[in-house]
Amino acid sequence: MNAHNLALVFSSCLFQTKGQTSEEVSVIEDLINNYVEIFEVKEDQVKQMDIENSFITKWKDTQVSQAGDLLIEVYVERKEPDCSIIIRISPVMEAEELTNDILAIKNIVPTKGDIWATFEVIENEELERPLHYTENVLEQVLQWSSLAEPGSAYLVVKRFLTIDTIKHCREKSIKEGALKLKEEPSKILSGNKFQDRYVVLRDGHLFIYKDPKSSKHDKMFSLSLMKFYLGVKKKMKPPTSWGLTAYSEKHHWHLCCDSLQAQMEWMASIFIAQHENDIWPPAGKERKRSITKNPKIGGLPLIPIQHERNASQAQKNIESARAELERLRLCEKHDRDCIDPSLKDRASIIAHCLEHKDDKLRNRARKHRSFNCLEDTEAEIPHSLPKGYKGPKTPKKTEDRNNKTTLDHDHKLPSKVIEELSVVLQRSRTLPKELQDEQTLQK
């Protein structure tokens, strides 16, 4: 949406006048186009907003996110409020895509030779693990529910390895050294202390020896069945501050190193051995992005303030909106026209019913007036006729019932009409008394 369209939208909200005149729209448009000079926005903030807008615009035409997406908070380099980004994670998003998106949003260009990765941090920031670039992010996040404190887990994007470290680890096909090791749950004989062991990394397995001179290993672990984290939990009382934690289905292993350099070398060697030297995609090869990608930051779509690329498309949008408004007006007018005839019909029905009621009352009055005449005619009946002769039966009652049934089926009156008719009937109840008085006077 360009500045002019935004001005048309917000002018009626920001001004207490008509809000649609050209002067008010021009004022809002000038505020949008010249907000940097008017509000004294710093250059670095302007550059950052331009980068974010370009990133959002890049994915504006992608598919709408489907069910299963999750909004999570991802940190950059360290866990601080200013370093966090809320981003949408799709069920098929991989760690490489998440890392690239975060770096693009923050405008971070990795220096040559540095490898950035997404780390999983758990156990109150005591343990962290780099995710492989093909690892599913959402699947790993959902596994946090099994932790003792799932709320303390988070993701952070930061530097992991350098080209020099990778070359150094690849030159050595075997990594070995003395480490202090502790198994959890611990055995009764070994106690609850860290034991000196000699560890050898070879052929995708980790071999544990009592000492360098031992010819037979005590234990052997497959790296593909274990997860290795940087760090050791404090409750384990590690002898040093540098170590690794290995998780398997049934056991946890804690390995302590003598220095930070030894810790990083062991972690790099294990990471490379686990993935058979495939630790990062080849240079220049872009992997397939998630099909449900929709860059909604914070759950709300951000619309960058910039000119519309296609002016004709914007004009078409305006014309379609006007046509829709005109259609709604016509529908409303049609509804009103439909309501008026219905009211007229109801009024005519009421008038017809009242008229029919008056005729019926007049007929009753005539009947009552002719009672005496009927008695006289009965007295004048010839005696030659049979005593039980009553004369021909008139089908008047049957016809009245049929007419009444037809009227009921043809006209189903509303409740208000029925109430009005009941009032008329109540008023007509006094008529028989007047008729009786009239008959008495005639006698």
UniProtKB/TrEMBL annotation:
Q: Looking at the record, which segments are called Disordered?
A: 382-415
Superkingdom: Eukaryota
Could you cite one Gene Ontology molecular function of this protein?
GTPase activator activity
Q: Name one GO biological process term.
A: signal transduction
Q: Does the keyword Disulfide bond apply?
A: no
Give any Pfam family that matches. PH
An annotated GO cellular component of this protein is: cytoplasm
Q: Residues in domain Rho-GAP?
A: 1-39
Q: Where is the composition biased (Basic and acidic residues)?
A: 396-415
Q: Where are the transmembrane segments?
A: none
Residue ranges occupied by any Ras-associating domain in the UniProt entry: 68-162
Q: Where is the signal peptide?
A: 1-19
Recite the UniProt keywords alphabetically: GTPase activation, Signal
Concerning SUPFAM superfamilies, the annotation shows: GTPase activation domain, GAP, PH domain-like
PH domain: residues covered:
172-275
Q: What is this protein called?
A: Uncharacterized protein
